[in-house]
Amino acid sequence: MNGQPLDTPPEARDLDLCLCHSCGLACDMTNEPETCPRCDAPLHRRKPDAITRTWAYMLAALVFYIPANLLPVMNTQMLGEGADSTIISGVIEFWQSGAWDIALIIFIASIAVPGIKFVVLTLLLVTAQRRSTWAQVQRAKLYRLVEVIGYWSMLDVLVVALVAALVKFQALSDIEPRPGILFFGLVVLFTMLSAMSFDPRLIWDTQRSEEVMDEVASH
User: Fold this and answer.
1) By the 8 A CB rule, do 152 and 109 touch?
2) Where are the extended beta strands (E) located within 29-123?
3) What is the CATH number of the domain that holds 180?
4) Within this chain, do residues 92 and 180 fall inside the same structural domain, yes or no?
5) Who is most buried in 11, 31, 143, 208, counting CB within 10 A?
6) What highest taxon heads this organism's lineage (predicted)?
7) Hey, what long-range contacts does 109-116 have (CB within 8 A, 24 or more apart)?
């Protein structure tokens, strides 16, 4: 079909179909409709300006990541004495007090996960821009990993809320959020937007181009 090898299933563009990003409907693009006939969402054969938008969102997240780690995320008052805590100092304090499980959750959610996402997204963007065929299957798995861990990025904010609730149950103690938690929320938001903006089909574009060139050369 359309010059496809017998053992290769046709792709959506070979059948002139486009998957709606909102409801998942396979839409017929023969007449170039602008919106999905079922949910009326805009249709795009590819995510528009995927690389540019992904870079923009990721760099914005990286900018917010610095104050998120340097500024205090909460202020704890015990017996009238208050102390600000950053993410790192909070991890250390929880670890030293014996709450290693909470310390581990905060470390993974606030430091390890954003760092992994920055490294993976940068790798995906650079290799896509260079149209590299290196480790395509592994890069596709890395993209799915970023999507999965993105849903758990708000664990740190939830832990801070839980700690705040626990502290407020104690007499003569109080806890208040600090600007660092706002910046961390922005980091989570922009890293999720960055992952959503990247088009994983860019990983395979070079392979597709090479297959087309080989097919033309064989004829």
Assistant:
1) yes
2) 74-78, 81-85
3) 1.20.140
4) yes
5) 143
6) Bacteria
7) 109/152, 109/153, 109/154, 109/155, 109/156, 109/159, 110/68, 110/69, 110/156, 110/184, 111/69, 111/87, 113/149, 113/152, 113/153, 114/61, 114/65, 114/153, 114/187, 114/188, 114/191, 116/146, 116/149
53 and 2 belong to one structural domain: no
Q: Which two tokens stand for residue 123?
A: 């790798």
Q: Which residues pair with 175 in a beta bridge?
A: 76
Q: Given 10, 28, 45, which residue is the final one in a domain?
A: 45
- Domain of residue 106, residue span: 49-218
39 and 56 fall within a common domain: no
Looking at the fold, whether 29 and 65 belong to one and the same domain comes out as: no
Q: Both 112 and 77 in a single domain?
A: yes
Give residue-wise pLDDT tens across range 158-193. Answer: 666 666 665 555 554 566 677 887 888 888 889 888
Number of alpha carbons in the 13 Å side-chain half-sphere of residue 91: 13
